[in-house]
Amino acid sequence: MAQIGDKVPMCENLYVARGESDHVDVILSSDIFKGKKVVAAGITSAFSNLDCKYMLEEYSRSYDDFKRRGIDDVVILSCNDPLVLRAWAKDQPGVEKLRIISDGDTDFHRGLDMAYKIPGMGVRCKRYGMVVVDGVIKHLNVDEAGPHSHIISTPKYLLEELDRGSFNN
Q: N or C end of the chain: smaller count of CB under 10 Å?
C-alpha cells in the first residue's frame, strides 16, 4: 500500500465536468497534483449513504478550512465510472467546489495498492484521505476496507495534521 513519501501514480483519469452533457475530460494525475498542495479523498461507492454523508458532505463542508490552510484543491476520487459520478454529484448539495474524478479503469488506485474487489460490485478503492504536495504523499489516512469504515479518512484528521504543520513543504 502507498506510504508517506511515495509519489502518486501517473495515469489518465476522467474529470467529471458538471453540466448536462455526457462529455468527460481526460485528465492526467500529474495535472491534478503537480506543483500543487492537494487534499485527495477516496470513496468506495457513489450513492452509498456512508460516502454521501460522511465523506462527500464532510469534505464539502471542510473545503474553506482546507483553503485557509494553504490547500490548492480538494479532489474526490472513486472507481465508479464518470457518468455515475456526475449523476451522484448533481444529486449532492453543496459540492460545487470539489473536483470529482473517476478512476474507472482503477489504474490510479491499483498504483496506490488501494483497490480491492467487492463481490457483486467489482473493483473499488479503500476510503482514504491524503495530502499530496507536488505529487508526493505527505500524509495518508486509510480506513480498513469495508462498508462501514470511515474513521480516519474523514477531513477532521487531515485538518488536525495541517494544523500541526508537519508537512508544509
A: C
